[in-house]
Design goal:
Two copies of one chain form a homodimer. Chain A is α/β, with parallel strands linked by helices. Chain A folds into two domains: 2-122 and 332-360, ornithine cyclodeaminase, domain 1, CATH 3.30.1780.10; 124-260 and 294-326, NAD(P)-binding Rossmann-like Domain (Rossmann fold, 3-Layer(aba) Sandwich). Chain A has helices spanning 6-12, 15-30, 122-138, 153-165, 178-192, 202-206, 244-247, 280-283, 305-309, 332-349, and strands at residues 2-3, 34-44, 52-62, 67-82, 85-91, 101-107, 113-118, 145-149, 170-174, 196-198, 211-214, 233-236, 252-255, 263-266, 274-275, 323-326, 353-354. In chain A, the strands form two sheets. In chain A, strands 1, 2, 3, 4, 5, 6, 7, 14, 15 and 17 form a ten-stranded mixed sheet that branches. In chain A, a hairpin with a 7-residue loop joins strand 14 and strand 15. In chain A, helix 4 runs parallel beside helix 5 (178-192). The first copy, chain A, is globular and about 65 Å long. The first copy, chain A, starts with a strand and ends in a 12-residue tail after the last strand. In chain A, 58% of the residues are buried.
Chain lengths: 366, 366
Amino acid sequence: MLILSNEDIESVLTLDVAFKALERAYLDQASGRAVNRPRSDLYLPGVHEGCVYAFKSMEGGLVESKIVALRLNSDVIRWENRENRVIKHKVPAAPGKKWVGLIQLFSAETGEPLAIFPDGVVQPIRVAVTSALAAREMARKDASVLAIFGSGWQAGAHVPAFCAVRDIKKVNVYSPTKANREKFAEQMERLEGIPVVPMLSPEAAAKDADILVAATNAITRVISPTWIKPGVHATCVKDSEFDDGTLRRADRIVIHSRNFAPENYIAGCGDQKIFAHDPVDFIRGDKKSTGDSEAAPFWVNSPELKDVIGGRVPGRTSPNEATCFINNIGLGIQFAAVGNAVYLEAKAKGLGKEIPTDWFLESVHP
Amino acid sequence: MLILSNEDIESVLTLDVAFKALERAYLDQASGRAVNRPRSDLYLPGVHEGCVYAFKSMEGGLVESKIVALRLNSDVIRWENRENRVIKHKVPAAPGKKWVGLIQLFSAETGEPLAIFPDGVVQPIRVAVTSALAAREMARKDASVLAIFGSGWQAGAHVPAFCAVRDIKKVNVYSPTKANREKFAEQMERLEGIPVVPMLSPEAAAKDADILVAATNAITRVISPTWIKPGVHATCVKDSEFDDGTLRRADRIVIHSRNFAPENYIAGCGDQKIFAHDPVDFIRGDKKSTGDSEAAPFWVNSPELKDVIGGRVPGRTSPNEATCFINNIGLGIQFAAVGNAVYLEAKAKGLGKEIPTDWFLESVHP
């Protein structure tokens, strides 16, 4: 069994590798040759003062690649109120102030575990490339100005991914902290060789943009309804960055998955499934019954990305449409696809550490 | 991070350890200090000729123990028709003709992975001890004759577990193959030091029994309705070993979980959840829509084991009641409880292999 580090992964996971792997995965999903077990979050309140433990997992399988991926996160979470926004903060509580996120790959041919590696490098790339694949199908062909909201690791992955699908000539960046947006602009300008301009307000960033990308850790609205104008394409890393008012102005909405919210299981709320993105109220005890689950949003029956990639529905039919892609939740097949590509590349290059697979097999019937 | 083998586990996992850990877990569950993410099965048909790949997983967390367990099985499955019964066969397809079932433990305090080990030794013990805990609350105090159906690893774990909760004086065993039931009887007689009698028919085995235990790999009925007589207690390792006719004769039914069937995700059936124990028909394409999911059984709102262990409902109120415990599906907290006990015992004894935890941590934000 192969153990890879984030450094190993970084050395093989190019944008090109990720685009090829993900496009293929959505084609497989469109043709019924892929399957997801949707994301679930299991919460243990009461272990930490002021924080909550959360175990997140999802799975995906690809028939052609004969691969199944399990992706898990073992997190200590704090929700913080900051500048009128609620921010979800993952506390690096593991030894050495580290986080725990793992991708595990299994062979669907033999069942054996093939590899285990951290998810930190894969995570933003699979999100950004998924949104960029949607933009490839949905943004105007002549889109040239990109507005990006956020200056963190998600935003950092989105700029190159979007530059790979459209001939972007200028990037506007807005992030509430001046130093952050300026540093981000510098970095991206160096990386892409095009002007990347830090903007004083979100409105200014959005003003002349053809593509709007929200890539923040805010769990409240980022994209204003008035920005959804003819010809624009907007996207997000979580649906709360849009809101219904914003989305209702779009002529066309495509979503990542109809599983609109994670399935939450919370100690103290019974063994009931609660659908919500951030079940803070349940954990604090303000809400108890599953009747309080988030209602399915109005856009839940919109076409999924697989339908657009697979050609069942169009991404855009005229230059004047306003389109939105809601990258609303992750899917296991993203980790199966990108994880398998990483595994094969790493294997070919002799990267990582091998430990005996036999440690993880058994001759006792399970 | 600790890696244990089935041999390591066998050397520390006594019945006593399992009883204590599981009783505590059900008490925690009763008081809202435990949580489960129910079992899901992800199927990839089309990888093997005549077989189906299945990735099964479940999770459980315990607040007091600050532990979360993930249990997964990466299986190649064949459903076989044998003697008018459908048998689920797990093909040992991994190198060395082995199976893949793993328990992974995580600290809810730091998030870090603590241990990973095979599930083969834990699996039958947690099933048997759970059923024995139910029998402790539900069988007549003076129950002395145990009838066991099946002669495999599940049955082998049930005999000692039931002998630990009742003063069993005789065991009747029935299994369709003569050689199997005779060998099993010999083994159990040696182990328990009481008469264990191989019977020529299931009816003969059931005749004078106070406790009936179905522990087979049949997915069709094992316990006949006529065997459910006043004073008897019956139990199973899957609900199909009973059937509705049998269960309707019981005065009192207790179940393991209201999650009556695994949530199945099957490539080719869309990303829809299908509730069924063995979704053979879906996989063969005879059924397609989730409207064909198994309907919730009539007993789905029966009290759960946690309610009985926690004292909310009685297990038996008179010597003449006929009681049934349906060990209908596994729960993640079983693996959290027994897994954590195994981990702590093994750690104290210096068993297993240590590999650097740091390999599974990351300084890149996940």
